[in-house]
Amino acid sequence: MTGLRYVYAVCRPFGAALQAQLIGVAGAPPKLLPHHGLIAVVSEVPERDFAEEPLKAHLEDLDWLAATARGHQAVIDALTAVTTPLPLRLGTVFRDDSGVRVMMEAREDSFRRALDRLEGRVEWGVKVYLDLEAAEAAEAARPQGKAASGRDYLRQRRMRSRSQDDMWEKAEAFSHRLHETLSGRAEDFRLHPPQNPTLSGAAGRNVLNAAYLVPRGNSEAFVEVVDRTKDDAPGLRVELTGPWAAYSFTEFHEEPAKAEEPAKAEEPAKAEASEKAEAPKKSGEPQEPQEPREPQEEDA
Amino acid sequence: MTVVERREIALVDLLDRLLAGGVVITGDLTLRIADVDLVRIDLNALISSVNKQVPAPWGELE
């Protein structure tokens, strides 16, 4: 029995060799499948794990998903070192090489356009967290006297909740300013939904979760700008990740996303929610109608 | 304010990109791309982190 084909990315031919020991998903080495002047990077994966039904079941398993995501990323990372890959969504599986070739022919033009647009660009992730506990600790360090009476106590409590609102506002204002600065230095950006603290394990609330598309040559300057955001705002933390392959910028836009910037930047947290809702409707990309999501896990 | 640059990529950052980004390919010749989204992954993360004796906090996720 031959396996299925897992496709990581499509890229243009590149001269350099991939690392010899590179391992992708399911422990398999990636192979290059050239067709019509493009290259699909694929590996053989077992049908028992990657056919539709088992794949669905596996995706419910966080450990399996984590291992597969790491395998996918290892290959994309290696490709990013030698070329500008167009990464595919995790879990893109074909029956055989000829299925991959037919897909490449059908999408040849859009692949070429996307590869042209992304050539030499990388993605940087920037997140801002508000750590209310840390911010409060800093606030509490300021002398405010001991509550002498019940009325004093209530007043102090009211002030504390007002100061939480203040900190939240400060965090949003900070994120807004940071986003304006960074999007001014990037060719494009995406605002992702804030991350769930249970999943990320990160301290504090995620206020901004953005991705920026930056030419490689400008990356150093971009990172420096992020670094310079250090100031004395208590309880705020900025996290930078990257450089990534341009995962967040693979959709095809007629209009540059920057045109929407003011509305979105105004309130990052809320704008992100609407961004997610709009995400499937990008232009130029034939999409299957989305199936209505069934209510799930309610009885679990 | 601190700027943190992580060496090891956090799973959640990876999933932000691998499950929400990347080119989505659909069509007769592909197996249907797995329909997975972060809401469900959140549920799973909670399931595995919540002790079996303790009811999962579904209410918070609605």
Automatic annotation (TrEMBL), chain B:
It comes from the Bacteria. It comes from Streptomyces acidicola. GO terms for molecular function: structural molecule activity. Its main location: other. Pfam families: Gas_vesicle (PF00741). Keywords: Gas vesicle. PANTHER family: GAS VESICLE PROTEIN A1, GAS VESICLE STRUCTURAL PROTEIN 2-RELATED. This is Gas vesicle protein. Signal peptide: none annotated.
